[in-house]
Amino acid sequence: MKRASLFGISITTVFYVLCACFGYAAFGNNAPANLLTSFGFYEPYWLVDFGNACVAFHLLGAYQVYSQPVFAFIEQWFSDKCPNSRFINDQCGVLIPFYGLYNINLFRLVWRTAFVVSTTSLAILFPFFNDVLGILGAMNFWPLTVYFPVEMYIAHSKIQSWTTRWIFLQTLSFVCFLVSLVAAIGSIEGVVESWKVRNATG
Questions:
Q1: What is the pLDDT of residues 38-47, one digit of tens each?
Q2: DSSP string, 129-189
């Protein structure tokens, strides 16, 4: 899991930094939220479709990685509250052609599907989705991706305060906090501007 997380977060970081840098280099402050379609680039259609498919594929993986703590918390909570429930705790076997017997937990299937459907529906219905998503991402990035893992690593490895390693890790955490703060400010400004445009046109 450690190698998978490192690989996934590294690729996601490179992807977002490249999109941000090239988008800003090409359009400055007028960079559109969707670089593939927001500035009139629709041909060749296959290239736009391929780009959108790559974005969807990337988001499917990222969504699964970042949703795992929520899934695990809810599943453990229900398992503790209802230890005798077969629906929550038992596995049932499903025969899959060319694979064999696959064990599946029905509660996990229903709960995770409902979560994905509800969050996707909310995202479709929510105005200013990109800006709100930016705020949520900025609020979650530093504590979940940097602060807690760094503090757990320091505690687990018993790193002494004010050593070179401790100073490096704390500096990394602080710089990432500043990045999250700036991203949150920019996203809030985006929501305010979108709200002004919506009120002016609506």
A1: 666 667 778 7
A2: HHHHHHHHHHHHIIIIIIIHHHHHHHHHHTPPTTSHHHHHHHHHHHHHHHHHHHHHHHHHH
